[in-house]
C-alpha cells in the first residue's frame, strides 16, 4: 500500500452513513493535515446541530482545531463564510477559517472551546456571581456584534420573513403537534395579532442580528467567567430589530431565569448599548416593551420550529424545551391588550400538557 493510499483511508474512529463521504473526508484530511499539523488518528465527533452539518475536533500540535462536515448538496457554506468574515472584521470572537474546500464541503476552523455557556451556568442560583459575569461578557460581546455594519450587507429581517416564521406556529405547533385546526374566527384573530406584532417589531431600530444568540451558541471558558465568549452558528444573520438577540439570550429556550434577573441583565445591556452609541430607546420602559414584543414573535416561531424538528425530523428532544418557550409567549400574550385570542389558543394547546397556568410578571 502506498503512503498516499494509506493517508486517504477512512478515519476509523468516525461512523459514516455514506462510504463515499467517508472517503472524501479522508482524502481532504490527508491534503490539509500536514499544513496544520493535524493528527488524523485523534479526530473525534464534537457536535451536530439541527441541520446536516457535523463537527469534529482534531488535535493540532499542542492544541486542537474543529472540522466542519457540510455536504455541499445539503448545506451552502457561503453564508457562514461571509458572516464569519464580516464579524471577524468587527473583532467579534468567531472561529477563524483556516481552510475551506467548497466543492467537497469541508472546513477547518479555530477551536473556541468545548464548553457552551449553558454548560457553565449554575442554573439553580440565578444571582450566582459566575452567572452574572458570564452574562455580562455575553452582553458586551453582543454590543460588539451589533456595532458591525450590516445594512445593505446582510438580508433584511423584513415583513415577509417575520410572517413566514410566525406561520410555523399554527402549521406545526398548533396543527401538527397539538392537533388544533383553527376555525375562520380563530384564524382571523391570529392574522390580526400577527399584523400587530409585525408592526411593533418593524418599527424598532435595526442592527446586525445573529438570530440564535443563546446559551448553546456561545462558547465559554469554564475557568474564567469574565472571558469573552466565542460566537458560533451565525450563518443566518440578518439586518433586523435591535432587541432580537437580547431576547434570544435572556429568554433562552434552554434555561429560564426569573423576570427580575432578565430585567437586571437587560438594563446592563441597555446601558452598555447606549454607551456604544447603538440605537436603543432613551427610556428603558420603551426598550423593555420592544423586547417583549420581539420575544413574542421569536417564541411563536420557536414553538413551530421545535414541533417541526420533533415531528418531521424525529428530533423528539426538542419537545422537552417547549414548556419554557410556551411560558415566555403566554406571559406576553396575557400582559398586553389585543393578545387575548392568542393567550386562549396557547392555553388550549397546552391544557392537556401541564402548560396552562397563571403567570405574573413585570411591565413598564
TrEMBL record:
Domain of life assignment: Bacteria
An example Gene Ontology molecular-function term: transferase activity
Name of a matching Pfam family: APH
Gene3D superfamilies: 3.90.1200.10, Phosphorylase Kinase, domain 1
Signal peptide residue numbers: none
The Aminoglycoside phosphotransferase domain, residue ranges: 43-275
Record flagged with keyword Transferase: yes
UniProt entry keywords in alphabetical sequence: Transferase
Protein name, entry field: Aminoglycoside phosphotransferase
Species of the source: Aquabacterium olei
Amino acid at each position: 500500500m502506498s503512503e498516499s493510499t494509506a493517508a486517504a483511508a477512512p478515519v476509523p474512529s468516525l461512523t459514516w452513513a455514506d462510504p463515499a463521504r467517508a472517503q472524501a473526508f479522508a482524502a481532504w484530511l490527508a491534503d490539509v493535515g500536514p499544513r496544520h499539523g493535524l493528527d488524523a488518528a485523534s479526530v473525534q465527533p464534537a457536535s451536530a446541530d439541527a441541520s446536516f452539518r457535523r463537527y469534529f475536533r482534531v488535535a493540532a500540535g499542542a492544541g486542537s482545531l474543529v472540522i466542519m462536515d457540510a455536504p455541499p448538496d445539503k448545506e451552502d457554506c457561503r453564508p457562514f463564510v461571509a458572516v464569519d468574515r464580516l464579524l471577524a472584521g468587527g473583532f467579534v470572537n468567531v472561529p477563524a477559517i483556516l481552510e475551506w474546500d467548497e466543492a467537497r464541503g469541508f472546513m477547518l476552523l479555530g477551536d473556541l472551546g468545548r464548553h457552551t455557556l449553558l454548560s457553565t451556568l449554575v442554573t439553580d442560583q440565578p444571582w450566582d456571581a459566575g452567572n452574572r459575569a458570564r452574562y455580562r461578557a455575553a452582553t458586551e460581546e453582543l454590543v460588539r456584534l451589533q456595532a458591525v455594519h450590516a445594512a445593505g450587507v446582510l438580508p433584511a429581517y423584513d415583513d415577509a420573513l417575520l410572517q413566514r416564521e410566525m406561520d410555523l406556529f399554527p402549521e406545526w405547533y398548533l396543527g401538527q403537534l397539538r392537533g388544533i385546526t383553527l376555525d375562520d374566527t380563530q384564524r382571523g384573530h391570529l392574522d390580526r395579532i400577527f399584523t400587530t406584532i409585525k408592526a411593533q417589531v418593524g418599527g424598532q431600530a435595526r442592527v446586525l442580528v445573529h438570530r440564535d444568540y443563546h446559551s448553546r451558541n456561545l462558547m465559554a471558558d469554564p475557568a474564567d467567567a469574565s472571558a469573552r465568549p466565542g460566537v458560533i452558528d451565525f450563518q443566518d444573520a440578518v439586518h433586523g430589530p435591535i432587541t432580537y438577540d437580547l431576547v434570544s439570550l435572556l429568554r433562552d429556550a434552554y434555561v429560564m431565569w426569573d423576570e427580575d434577573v432578565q430585567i437586571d441583565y437587560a438594563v446592563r445591556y441597555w446601558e452598555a448599548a447606549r454607551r456604544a452609541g447603538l440605537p436603543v430607546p432613551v427610556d428603558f420602559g420603551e426598550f423593555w416593551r420592544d423586547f417583549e414584543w420581539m420575544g413574542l414573535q421569536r417564541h411563536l416561531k420557536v414553538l413551530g420550529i421545535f414541533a417541526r424538528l420533533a415531528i418531521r425530523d424525529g428530533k423528539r428532544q426538542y419537545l422537552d424545551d417547549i414548556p419554557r418557550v410556551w411560558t415566555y409567549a403566554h406571559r406576553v400574550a396575557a400582559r398586553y391588550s389585543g393578545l387575548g385570542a392568542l393567550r386562549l389558543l396557547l392555553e388550549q394547546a397546552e391544557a392537556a400538557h401541564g402548560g396552562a397556568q397563571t403567570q405574573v410578571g413585570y411591565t413598564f
